[in-house]
Specification:
Number of helices: 13
Shape: globular
CATH class of the largest domain: Alpha Beta
Strand content: 5-15%
Strand order of the largest sheet: 1-7-6-5-4-2-3
CATH superfamily of the largest domain: Type I PLP-dependent aspartate aminotransferase-like (Major domain)
Radius of gyration: 23 Å
CATH topology of the largest domain: Aspartate Aminotransferase, domain 2
Structural class: alpha/beta
CATH architecture of the largest domain: 3-Layer(aba) Sandwich
Largest sheet: 7 strands, mixed
Length: about 400
């Protein structure tokens, strides 16, 4: 083997050999891995991580194959009954995002990035030569997808709270007056959980000509929809398209993304068939993801989802108090399930597996993040400060 292609050999009992392995032994090893990764023993507060509690109810769906092409609103000879479930899921998210059931369409994607990709393809059709205005606090996938679509990406400064700066957006769009603008707003930035005010952003970009506002609400849409203390972020506030994620807060075992668009923005031939969009990059929808979402949402109901968000917001408020008393300088935006604080020593980050960036660490108040876990984390932060002082 060439040194350029050589890789580190895996453990002997994990290597993929010439002959088939023993399925029973492999299953036993995977069950052991599951026990090792059971975060009841190993806290994981940097990301939502609470899948085990819903695996029993969702497990039967993992045996289904639903890799249909096309659109959930479109009938066909191979449609086997799952479209109705997909439509129910999309109706739920359309109402959640402030859209009309008759005017909003979309699809369930295999990931938030695929949903984002489809939505930005639509925006690219509406504004053939736009620059994409993206906050420096936006998810990195936003820039990657815009570059993949051949768009000129203009990075916009963020305010201290993590939201996109309307004044900088106004300046940058004036420099490109008349070209049109694709403004990619964020509802729930990766580190701070900040929510952009899309009304202010649309006004700021108006001098550029036609404006298409897309909202990446993958991280914060579900929380924002159940909170009254957030700025305008949704279809009800004028977004042209919006993407959400279903798996982090709802505890799904696979990634899912939801793409929602205003029907009026679809190409004319699509509108005639009530089809929202067809992405030239992929035409396969996530049937399994839609069924998993439907099952989970049915088990919770709208009141259950609202209660889940309210619980997370309560824990976030508790975390703000506890981490402040620990001297960690926490920050929390209204309605968000994200709390950031000063990056602690390595041993604390490793123990709690915290995501850190730019001198800040974060927790998300879902799943295993309870009042007790917050208090234990705060105790570790106090110990770290005492150790540093000594």
């Amino acid at each position: 083997m060439s040194p350029r292609t050589a890789t580190t050999s895996p453990a002997d009992d994990l290597a993929i050999g010439v002959q088939p392995s023993q399925p029973t032994a492999d299953t036993r090893a995977l069950h052991q891995l599951q026990r090792v990764l059971d975060h009841g023993e190993r806290p994981f507060l940097g990301f939502p991580d609470h899948l085990l509690q819903v695996m029993v109810e969702l497990a039967p769906l993992l045996g289904l194959l639903d890799d249909q092409q096309g659109d959930p609103y479109e009938g066909g000879r191979f449609e086997e009954g799952t479209h109705a479930y997909k439509q129910a899921v999309l109706d739920y998210f359309a109402v959640l995002a402030g859209g009309s059931l008759n005017e909003t369409h979309g699809h369930v994607a295999s990931s938030p990035r695929e949903a984002l990709q489809s939505a930005l393809v639509l925006a690219r059709r509406r504004l053939p030569e736009p620059s994409a205005y993206v906050s420096e606090e936006a998810h990195r996938d936003v820039t990657r997808v815009c570059e993949l679509l051949g768009m000129n990406v203009v990075r916009i400064h963020a305010l201290p709270d993590g939201t996109m700066d309307p004044d900088d957006l106004r300046l940058q769009t004036r420099l490109r007056r008349g070209a049109g603008a694709l403004v990619v707003a964020t509802c729930g930035t990766p580190m701070r959980g900040a929510i952009d005010n899309i009304v202010d952003l649309r006004t700021a970009a108006s001098s550029s000509g036609p404006v298409h506002v897309h909202v990446d609400a993958s991280a914060g849409g579900l929380a924002a929809a159940h909170s009254s203390q957030v700025p305008p972020w949704s279809l009800a506030h004028g977004a042209n398209s919006l993407t959400l994620s279903g798996h982090p807060l709802l505890s799904l075992p696979v990634p899912t993304g939801i793409c929602l668009v205003r029907r009026e923005h679809a190409p004319a031939d699509d509108r005639q068939n009530a089809v929202p969009l067809r992405s030239p990059l992929t035409d396969t929808r996530s049937g399994l993801g839609a069924l998993l979402l439907w099952t989970r949402l049915r088990s919770l109901g709208r009141t259950g989802v609202a209660a889940m968000v309210a619980r997370g917001q309560d824990v976030a408020a508790h975390a703000l108090e506890q981490l402040d008393s620990a001297g960690a300088s926490p920050q929390h935006l209204p309605g968000s399930l994200t709390v950031t604080f000063e990056q602690p020593p390595t041993w604390v980050s490793d123990k709690w597996r915290l995501r850190s960036e730019g001198g800040l660490a974060r927790i998300t108040t879902t799943g295993p993040m309870t009042h007790a876990a917050v208090e234990e984390l705060a105790a570790d932060l106090r110990s770290a400060r005492r150790g540093a002082a000594a």
